[in-house]
């Protein structure tokens, strides 16, 4: 099947209120252009050098989302063309985004990465760490690094019950943060959870953004 037909099939399973991020990392510009020509506008990348090259060669109305682990020394480079960062996992990183976004006068949507999976290799705040950070109230002075929601990756497993419980926990935590910290902030509205293998469960559990790569583009070309 073509990329365009893959997209059509996936879109038919995603409600209108859920944003589809086409994860284009490790795929060539030609593949991204095929998805673009089929109407896709939001793409997810995870490496600064790769997305830098691509965004120079592709249409300017693409909305780039950074979904990989972001080192503070890469922040300045990616901000000019980045709309949303899904992997904000420390106050140090938020501060760096704020500092560099202020210099170019651009608001960046930041999603707090929450560790919900069993795998140690996955990154992010645990629930307590996240609340402790927000309790400091430093975030209330942010003008450019806009905390717009949360992101989490479930354990990679065939155990659907476990995956559902992890997504449910993230949704519940989002609701608590909304109530306790962000009640008056309309922009705190995103729950980024769900990938090719588990996005349907994520949507059922309240996801507002799904990150799908393999089901659109096929296996990655490393």
SSE layout and pairing:
Elements: H1 3-11, E1 19-23, H2 29-37, E2 42-45, H3 48-57, E3 63-66, H4 75-78, E4 82-88, H5 91-104, E5 108-113, H6 127-135, E6 145-151, H7 160-180, E7 190-192, H8 199-204, E8 209-212, H9 214-217
Parallel strand pairs: 1-2, 1-8, 2-3, 3-4, 4-5, 5-6, 6-7
What string gives the helices and strands in order? HEHEHEHEHEHEHEHEH
How is the largest sheet built, in terms of strand order?
Answer: 7-6-5-4-3-2-1-8
Number of domains: 1
Query: What is the name of the CATH topology?
Result: TIM Barrel
CATH class: Alpha Beta
- Helix content bin: 25-40%
Number of strands: 8
- Put simply, the count of helices is 9
CATH superfamily grouping: Alanine racemase
Binned strand content: 15-25%
Mean model confidence by pLDDT: 95
Concise structural overview:
With 222 residues, the chain is α/β, with parallel strands linked by helices.
What does this protein structure show overall?
The chain has about 220 residues and is α/β, with parallel strands linked by helices. The protein has helices spanning about 5-10, 30-35, 50-55, 75-80, 90-105, 125-135, 160-180, 200-205, 215; strands at about 20-25, 40-45, 65, 80-90, 110-115, 145-150, 190, 210. The chain has a single domain, classed as Alanine racemase (TIM Barrel). The protein is built from nine helices and eight strands. An eight-stranded parallel β-sheet has the order 7-6-5-4-3-2-1-8. The protein is globular. The mean pLDDT is about 95.
